[in-house]
Amino acid sequence: MIVFSNTTPFIALSSIGQLELLPALFGKVHVAESVARECAEGGRILVPDLWTLSWVVQVSDEETSTLPILFELDRGEQQTIGLARKCNADRVIIDERLGRRVAEYLQLNVTGTLGVLAKAKDIGLIPSFSEAAQTMREQGIHYNVGLVARIAQRLGEISP
Question: For residues 12-47, b (16+ Cβ closer than 10 Å) or e, as one string?
Answer without folding.
Answer: bbbbbebbebbeebbeebbbbbbbbebbeeeeebeb
